[in-house]
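Progress against Task 2.4 (sequence-to-structure conversion) is shown through the following example record, which the project officer requested during the mid-term review.
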Amino acid sequence: MLSKIQRATDKARSILLGIRNNPLFTVCFRSHVNMVDQSSSSKVQALYELCSNTFTPGGPPSSSAALHKLSSLMDTIRPTDVGLKEESPDDDRGHGFFGLSRLSGVARWAQPITYIDIYESESFTMCIFCFPTSSVIPLHDHPGMTVFSKVLYGSLHVKAYDWVEPTRIHESIGSGSPPVKLAKLSVDKVLTAPCGTSVLYPKSGGNIHCFTAVTPCAVLDVLTPSYREDAGRKCTYYHDYPYSPPPTGNDVVDGKNEEYAWLAEIETPDNLYMRPGLYRGPRLHV
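Structure tokens generated for the chain above:
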């Protein structure tokens, strides 16, 4: 049982990091993207076709009309359109006993986030994250990528930053701490379905963000282009420190300290516990 849980966690983490050479992932991926479509007029099919006609491996077009069209289509998608059943706000899955903290080696009181792969190519990725209450995807980035996110059901707290330009880096903010880079808070709010699609861009909109489930919730994501480490699109995790003037004593913000933070790169968190799930929505014709 322990090894199975660890393998599921590692596989889901690999998906987050954009690693596509996992044989198990390749088999599962091919098994559903090549299936004959049962409903060519489904919203998820329309989303796939719009993404295919809009995105290239270089990312989204500069046309704001194209991006607005995609957001408008995602705005109409409901849980049932992607094969999900909305979880009850009273669901207590966030306090289960199957969670595993590999850092401490003991069980922790949390169930895993479920990652559902719908489609992935070099140009874009379509996927769903299902969160139990209180589960967290830690602060991470989407380098050089544009991401469309739609909360399908439930409530999700989003805290997001963008890098301050010109770049401001300091060796540390205290004894023994790693180098840090200055970022400005872009989003700090709770999104509750039904709500509009959120869009983040490579340098704006909250490219570095953290998700915390207020209630059981699910998020439909479209990422373009997809994570690809050899192209410089590798997911990096961060820890945010409250802003304080650097040790040099030269304050670099305009007096609103609460709008800024120092971010330090960290290793992939050991307690990021995820498992792959099966896509049960309308089959794609690819």
